[in-house]
Design goal:
heterodimer, A: 161 residues, alpha+beta, five-stranded mixed beta sheet, 35% helix, 16% strand, globular, B: alpha+beta
């Protein structure tokens, strides 16, 4: 048995028939071919599959696609303004070496974009707490923290100008 | 890791959800936030025949003060809303202080108040907090309801007073007496991980500044929230001196709990954490009670 769902992903409307057991992360990757959302642990621990659900970060591997019916999702594909340009947070990750293999990066970005909206001037402790739900096995987190600081600083400067 | 196939219903009213529960009872699971249920389904540790998705039941998403001054919280309130809600902060500051310890924002954005209570994980914060606050839960079935005190609701490891056809629909939290202070602390290896030990304290002082009533409730040290009754009794009638607090902490961490060890913490280490955290929360709760904070 399948269910018809209507979802808006990155501003575009989609209608699809889905099995109820289809995970939202698999729906994004397999049905919509939005493979930027990564699937790590598949039980809500590693944070790699983090997306925005009506603007708030959630883990798409422990949501069902049917539950997204009528909701608006944002994935990492929506961040960069154009193919040749990065989102300021992505730019900061690049400059600070906030990624190595890059597998966890989409989840970090989708966790941190709303975090910086809510807290534009975070302390290091607040940044570390904000990323406590995302696992990175390469960086040791230090360069991710540096990237968030840099992005926050640029964001504040841009707001002043 | 994908869930086994199941039937799915997303009723638009509480009545329809309760009817579905009455028909399917033991074969069905209610899906609220799904932050514990979907992982165990992904592992296929749970293979319910039917999921009744209650996320459309807007009537269960409320926070209000009732006529008797009790704080009423609907089962479908997301934990993130609990964390941010000004009425919760004013009427149940213990909840306001403790909810940010629940997992991570990604989880709290979906996880619900009622879902965590009904799941009854002994390592979860909300069951222990509900017991500490003296909350009562309304359990509804098609054609009737009943109220159960939080302390009687939790029956053991993932076990509650809920019958297969019942849904926990709301909680009522009584207003605390005057001169009441509160505190919550937990220790986890990483912020948001399951706590190795956590404790919620509430202390009410009398006019002379002596402890009239204390309440200490622990998570992660038993198969349900653990209430340290003897420790609380030791404090009654006492000034909250460092000696009295230390004696209560010793009692609570001694024969009032029986923590199981795991790879990260031996039972003795958990007792040590419980002892230290108990001293800290009692100290803090006592200060707040003395400083005229009259809410818990």
């Amino acid at each position: 048995m399948t269910y018809k769902i209507s979802v808006t992903v990155n501003g575009r409307a989609y209608e699809r028939d889905v099995e109820p057991r289809l995970l939202l992360s698999d729906f994004l990757r397999h049905d919509l071919a939005l493979t930027g959302t990564h699937v790590g642990c598949e039980h809500g621990v590693c944070g790699a599959c983090t997306i925005l659900f009506d603007g708030e970060p959630v883990r798409s591997c422990i949501l069902l696609a049917v539950q997204a019916d009528g909701h608006a999702l944002t994935t990492v594909e929506a961040l960069a303004p154009s193919p040749g340009e990065l989102h300021p947070l992505q730019q900061a990750f690049w400059e600070c070496h906030g990624l190595q293999c890059g597998f966890c990066t989409p989840g970090f970005l989708m966790t941190l974009v709303p975090f910086l909206e809510e807290n534009p001037d975070p302390s290091e402790a607040e940044i570390r707490q904000a990323i406590s739900g995302n696992l990175c096995r390469c960086t040791g987190y230090q360069h991710i923290v540096d990237a968030v600081k840099l992005a926050a600083e640029r964001r504040r400067q841009a707001a002043v100008e | 890791m994908k869930p086994a196939p199941f039937e799915y219903q997303a009723p638009a009213s509480l009545e329809a959800a309760l009817d579905a529960l009455a028909r399917h009872g033991g074969d069905a699971k209610l899906l609220a936030g799904g932050q514990s249920l979907i992982p165990v389904m992904n592992f296929r540790l749970a293979e319910p025949a039917l999921l009744i998705d209650i996320n459309k039941l807007a009537e269960l998403d409320f926070i209000r003060r009732d006529e008797e001054g009790h704080l009423r919280i609907g089962a479908l309130v997301r934990q993130r809303r609990l964390e941010r809600d000004p009425l919760v902060a004013a009427m149940a500051p213990l909840l306001h202080e403790a909810v940010p310890f629940i997992a991570h924002p990604q989880i709290r954005n979906r996880g619900t108040f009622g879902g965590s209570l009904a799941h009854a994980d002994p390592a979860a914060e909300l069951p222990a907090l509900a017991v500490a606050l003296g909350a009562r839960f309304r359990l509804q079935r098609a054609g009737g309801d009943r109220w159960v005190a939080a302390e009687e609701f939790f029956a053991g490891l993932f076990a509650t007073a809920l019958e297969p056809d019942e849904m926990l629909v709301e909680a009522a939290i009584p207003p605390p007496p005057a001169r009441t202070g509160w505190a919550f602390l937990e220790v986890a290896r990483r912020h948001g991980d399951y706590a190795q030990v956590g404790v919620a304290a509430r202390v009410t002082l009398d006019d002379s500044g002596r402890c009239r009533e204390a309440r200490l409730v622990y998570l992660s040290v038993g198969d349900a929230p653990v209430v340290a009754r003897e420790a609380a009794r030791l404090l009654a009638g006492q000034q909250l001196s460092p000696e009295a607090i230390a004696a209560a902490a010793e009692k609570a961490a001694g024969d009032e709990m029986d923590p199981l060890g795991d790879i990260h913490a031996t039972p003795e280490f958990k007792r040590h954490l419980a002892r230290v955290l108990t001293r800290r929360v009692l100290q803090k709760a006592g200060e707040r009670a003395r400083n005229g904070a009259n809410l818990s």
